Amino acid sequence: MNKKIRNRAFAGTALALAVSAVLTACGGGDGASSGTKAAKATPGATPADVKDPLVATFDGGLYVLDGESLKLARTIELPGFNRVNPAGDDDHVIVSTDAGFRVLNAAEQTFTDITYEGAKPGHVVRHAGRTALFTDGTGQVNVFDPADLAGGEKPEGRTYTSAEAHHGVAIELSNGELLSTLGTEEKRTGALVLDKNNKEIARNEDCPGVHGEAAAKGEAVAVGCEDGILIYKDGKFTKVDAPDDYGRIGNQAGSDTSPVLLGDYKTDPDAELERPTRISLIDTETAKLRLVDLGTSYSFRSLGRGPHGEALVLGTNGTLHVIDPETGKVEKKIPVVDKWQEPLDWQQARPTLFVRDHTAYVSEPGKRKLHAVDIETGEKLASVTLPKSTNELSGVVAGH
To answer: Is the pLDDT of residue 4 over 50?
Structure first.
């Protein structure tokens, strides 16, 4: 069992990032977190060796787990609501706290001294060997090479500050162009693109409520809108309209091996919490949008992509749906957890999907469990019961 995951993890460095810009979105909240600067490991604990570390948040701290056995290696105390995303290398993850973005060396199970300070740290996006942080409270974007985190000091990187602070997102392309959202605290309208010298070269404000991002094969980058999705490719913006007047695609997942993006899809602007059963598949080459009804609802932490571009959705029926992005056909249904319901508050825990190489990791907070599943065979590779229920789930994922 462990040998299988180990071989795949090492063999899949290129595949491990079929997803170049993964889902890092919130559920419609402001992306803020309320942790404190205090962080300490379990007293007397000695870091254990971990392979391909996973990091899960819980109310009051972080769990660092071995990516093969799922064995709990270390508990780090960190009060408040914290968020976690891959930093883009083999060792680090980015933790969002009220102090800003903090860098955790997951391999060594300890925080580094690297902090990107600022209120309401939001989206973390990895693409083309670069990692972009967007701080909602200031509108500041920080972009760096995650390989430079190894030195333990803040990397020399690119900075850009939005005209106004807002809940936004940014992504740097392989040619040095930077796409960043446009908006204010009250209203978000679209995106702009800067050249490598931070000079604006493109803009589109036909994307109300812009939220989330993903990148597809051929470096087509998209951000979600309340009436469809906005694609930037080869220096041009293309708007793909939703079939409904209000058709919100707020969270997306992309793959380097597929031109099709996976998105959520909501149609009720007045709902306290809409629990949709349809997902969206957006072909970035044809600018066509397809809706697929899964017959079960899901949450913003349910979307992922497999090593061959498979679209993955964890349903509230407890099943991981493996979908052909080209046809929209559900090719496989893998039972993983018990049935669940999405909570009203986006900060509350719910089963969460994190994908790395051929393995889907799924949390089950109702049982304090975490599972590893082989995407291709459907085999459950490992399970663990943790001391407390977890909320967010992520891990180290090397870039390319």
So the answer is: no
Quick one: pLDDT at residue 32? 39
For residues 188, 142, 305, 27, the Cα torsion angle rounded to the nearest 10 degrees is -40
**Which of 400, 310, 294, 313 is closest to 351 using CA atoms?**
313
The two structure tokens encoding residue 52: 């391909």
Tokens of 31: 């992306």
At 170-198, the pLDDT tens digits run: 999 999 999 999 999 999 999 999 999 99
End-to-end CA distance of the chain: 27
- Tokens standing for residue 278: 């349809």
Residues 106-121 as b or e (16 or more Cβ within 10 Å = b): bbbbebbebbbebebb
Helices of type H across the chain: 2-11, 13-16
C-alpha gyration radius of the chain: 19
| Residue 46 to residue 124: CA distance in whole angstroms | 30
Which neighbouring-strand residues pair with 143? 132, 158
* Chain-centre distance for alpha carbon 353: 10
How far is 252 from 211, CA to CA, in rounded Å?
A: 9
Reported pTM: 0.89
DSSP 363: E
